[in-house]
Hints:
By secondary structure, chain A is an alpha/beta fold. Chain A has helices at residues 20-26, 78-93, 109-116, 152-160, 195-199, 211-218, 250-260, 268-289, 301-310, 324-340, 357-362, 381-390, 412-415, 422-436, 474-485, 515-531, 541-551, 557-563; strands spanning 3-7, 10-14, 50-53, 60-61, 71-74, 140-142, 166-169, 176-179, 205-207, 224-229, 264-267, 295-296, 347-353, 377-380, 454-461, 464-472, 493-497. Chain B has helices spanning 14-17, 21-34, 72-85, 110-113, 131-136, 141-149, 152-162, 174-183, 204-211, 213-227, 241-256, 287-294, 323-341, 374-381, 415-420, 439-453, 459-476, 482-498, 502-506, 509-517, 519-526, 541-544; strands at residues 6-11, 41-46, 58-61, 65-67, 189-195, 229-236, 272-277, 318-322, 351-358, 364-369, 391-396, 403-404, 429-434. The structure holds flavin mononucleotide, iron/sulfur cluster (4 copies) and FE2/S2 (inorganic) cluster (2 copies). Residues 166-170, 172, 194, 196-198, 282-283, 285-287, 320-322, 325, 501-503 of chain B line the site of flavin mononucleotide.
Amino acid sequence: xxxxxxxxxxxxxxxxxxxxxxxxxxxxxxxxxxxxxxxxxxxxxxxxxxxxxxxxxxxxxxxxxxxxxxxxxxxxxxxxxxxxxxxxxxxxxxxxxxxxxxxxxxxxxxxxxxxxxxxxxxxxxxxxxxxxxxxxxxxxxxxxxxxxxxxxxxxxxxxxxxxxxxxxxxxxxxxxxxxxxxxxxxxxxxxxxxxxxxxxxxxxxxxxxxxxxxxxxxxxxxxxxxxxxxxxxxxxxxxxxxxxxxxxxxxxxxxxxxxxxxxxxxxxxxxxxxxxxxxxxxxxxxxxxxxxxxxxxxxxxxxxxxxxxxxxxxxxxxxxxxxxxxxxxxxxxxxxxxxxxxxxxxxxxxxxxxxxxxxxxxxxxxxxxxxxxxxxxxxxxxxxxxxxxxxxxxxxxxxxxxxxxxxxxxxxxxxxxxxxxxxxxxxxxxxxxxxxxxxxxxxxxxxxxxxxxxxxxxxxxxxxxxxxxxxxxxxxxxxxxxxxxxxxxxxxxxxxxxxxxxxxxxxxxxxxxxxxxxxxxxxxxxxxxxxxxxxxxxxxxxxxxxxxxxxxxxxxxxxxxxxxxxxxxxx
Amino acid sequence: xxxxxxxxxxxxxxxxxxxxxxxxxxxxxxxxxxxxxxxxxxxxxxxxxxxxxxxxxxxxxxxxxxxxxxxxxxxxxxxxxxxxxxxxxxxxxxxxxxxxxxxxxxxxxxxxxxxxxxxxxxxxxxxxxxxxxxxxxxxxxxxxxxxxxxxxxxxxxxxxxxxxxxxxxxxxxxxxxxxxxxxxxxxxxxxxxxxxxxxxxxxxxxxxxxxxxxxxxxxxxxxxxxxxxxxxxxxxxxxxxxxxxxxxxxxxxxxxxxxxxxxxxxxxxxxxxxxxxxxxxxxxxxxxxxxxxxxxxxxxxxxxxxxxxxxxxxxxxxxxxxxxxxxxxxxxxxxxxxxxxxxxxxxxxxxxxxxxxxxxxxxxxxxxxxxxxxxxxxxxxxxxxxxxxxxxxxxxxxxxxxxxxxxxxxxxxxxxxxxxxxxxxxxxxxxxxxxxxxxxxxxxxxxxxxxxxxxxxxxxxxxxxxxxxxxxxxxxxxxxxxxxxxxxxxxxxxxxxxxxxxxxxxxxxxxxxxxxxxxxxxxxxxxxxxxxxxxxxxxxxxxxxx
Lengths: 571, 546
Ligand SMILES: Cc1cc2nc3c(=O)[nH]c(=O)nc-3n(C[C@H](O)[C@H](O)[C@H](O)COP(=O)(O)O)c2cc1C
Ligand code: SF4
Ligand code: SF4
Ligand code: SF4
Ligand code: SF4
Ligand code: FES
Ligand code: FES
């Protein structure tokens, strides 16, 4: 039984219990929102979405108000327009309107509201709060003056990530969203995942912009500047230029980077394949030598930091493998420098990552095994887009290019690292064939794909049934970690990605990154995999050559110094 | 039972406590012992007598003579003169004597004559710390009757027929609220007594809890029986230490006497109560913020629907009722809906407790039938405006109530007629102001309260209240113009229509009613003049507003 509602004179049938907002969307009627986030619980706090419901004395927020049979709704009456305009004017009266300097400009919901509601000025006295900014971390900065108190970040940190560092303090006009005691993010258990940033409708939380450092390196003739791009970038960057979510833009991405002036355009997928070889062998070693199980993946730096803060006693479960980004950095300044006869000190490594925590990872003191800082600068997808725009590169006109060899050669197994379950699937493809000596029939492990928070599978490998678990988003990860901590984990091998959907949903990705967008990017990632001729990491010829010429063997001495790491108890 | 020839009932309510009723009581007891009267005269702590302004106060029975504004040395005289020699101490008396020197009964004094005490029936007459006193005054008969001969449905029917409406502010029909809670699906239902009472100048719920806590225990047990709840919570404002103490004591006594707990009075009905001390913020009195606060969260209102009757405490059906609402319940069950409807007006049956404050001779706690006029309350019960000044305005319903002018003195005080004049009964606060006050200044003060008390959750209230306050500052400073008045109106409309909870929705009410009822005075400010000479003209508006 559907519920009939009449919105702006049109009667439509909607699912019972729908909100007015979803009914409006079904009827293609746009209702402005601000605190509403499609992946979060309803807050009904900003009140921008108010509409008129016949028979009601008060206006009602469309985002929370349920429809009922025969309800008559009007979304743009004079009373509604007046209320929305007045509320927006109130918000603008304490907002530092510096859109010109703001990295969120053009992706800002407040700016868009002002434009859509045609509010250009406010009659209310300006009252800037001049709150302290937080620039304590290498990944994120908070500019609370721009906060509109929508609490979407609060929900992201607490519910999505299960951490809960951000909360509402103060009352009335002094209400602010902050950490407990307004302690800088650097000094709390923040994992720098940027999910709060992704949830924020405005520029109150942004990444630390490092584009200038890259411009400087590019214009320095003494520097050999190489760039690596993570798997998740090629299915997202197009969105920054007006493309559909989930468009695959690998070729354009490579050419655009060349146009920017990078000396070599490489692919983190290369070291993703390498990670599978090292991590696969580590897993098999743990299995056969009674090592700590379950083994848990370590390529997501937010996840690693989360474990260091929250489960310092369980760090032995983490694979000792560095993330693909850091393996790349270490090899770029050793293997690659040697091979191409370039002084390691002049190699400058830039990575383009979907992730804000990667900035933190690259800055970790452990990440200097090449003798230098292995990765010099980490750019988010958004920062790269900014540079391309700054350089005047006409995205539409960019033709397709190919990654450089050897650190640009990869397989489909590496591509799917970008999606939740991808690392596990890539590992299973390799471990299965290495152990059983048999070729896999179907390469697709559907049980570990998709947006379900926790996924599991049991795979017969040789005479062993390997139980694997996959979680993404730290609230889900916590569930698996509680089992590990109390000794009830049923798994041998666990993949955890800090961000919902995996790296394609990271804090450095184009805005908006909602679950709907994540699903489209995931679909794109698997299409990249399917289009590859090589789809198993152990088939990567460049990786095989790397072992033959340089590393010698998985888990060997060189691997140990360059590709593996240790963790810090942070408490 | 021991027989005493006289009883001295000393008010131990909070308003008297701050004025030193403890030492008055001590002096009284010592003096009685000194005269060897302890076998003949009993001293009893009791609840508020209503004339808080004249506290510390006591009443000597059987004569019913009330003495007020007492110091310990006054008491020596009362004991040696009245109690020992039977001579009244006229200089301390609060009621007139007749031609033959006889005392006119307290109930015939102007202060009490127009009152009708249903909720306060025991206040000032019994010792609130003794369950025996409550029972002797007829307490727990209603509960016994209900459990014995009434179904939960018939209890709800009786309350519905009585026309009882919530006394916490919104005036929602109590029977209907109980019915909704009863039929809502849920494992564990709850009754919550709302004794947060954060409204400035309001202390009725406190004095009811202090003066007659068992009445609330009984009212909540009846509510629990009616809606099918086995658990109840009395949410009492944290500063109300005596209320908390007396309520906890009453709950213990009720449990010991089988009036709470498993199988109450040998029936199949089980019900228990606990006290929860409030977090302190005004907004925590809003029922859903209160529920959040009980759950251990920041006290912020929830959006509605869903309403607490469907999803309240811990997501379960919950009936939140004000103290005074619950205090009416035992009498209605005992004496019937018809009796209750004989009091008050057809749309607002029963009585209403008001806290009279401001420029009024007798400030304190009164209970009157609904529909009484403001004039009767102010000039007869309240004794008029002191120091020969003129009445200027009355604010009913608390800080978010409307400002009524002299033209409204004869409107009946009930839910509907107050509402039709842009005000409300609200919490029962009644603030009277004389003609030395300025309406702009007053409304600004009211607004300042909301600027501070907004929980900060929703835009219209968080940002609107300070903006409105600022605009009034501009008007007060003589810097306002007609455009500002238009903006005040537009902003007020938005706050009313779009705020999440009633705090923001009603915050502009005083301003709007002032614009409506006191326009000439406001217009004078636009022309740079404050008729009451209160506002400082010409100060930079920006500096004023904070
Ligand atoms: C800001 C605000 C404060 C309130 N404070 C109180 C209060 O202190 N006591 C109270 O009984 N109701 C208070 N209310 C009303 C309650 O939300 C609720 O309507 C009432 O407790 C229901 O009881 P009733 O039906 O018996 O009136 C307040 C409402 C608002 C919006
Ligand atoms: S947050 Fe939005 S409105 Fe504010 S300055 Fe940035 S782009 Fe402009
Ligand atoms: S970066 Fe992640 S952990 Fe840190 S505050 Fe934001 S959501 Fe929470
Ligand atoms: S920081 Fe952003 S997401 Fe968080 S409350 Fe403020 S505006 Fe909303
Ligand atoms: S109206 Fe005011 S008190 Fe109520 S929810 Fe909104 S901000 Fe909070
Ligand atoms: S979007 Fe509905 S209240 Fe914010
Ligand atoms: S508190 Fe003592 S008379 Fe009111």
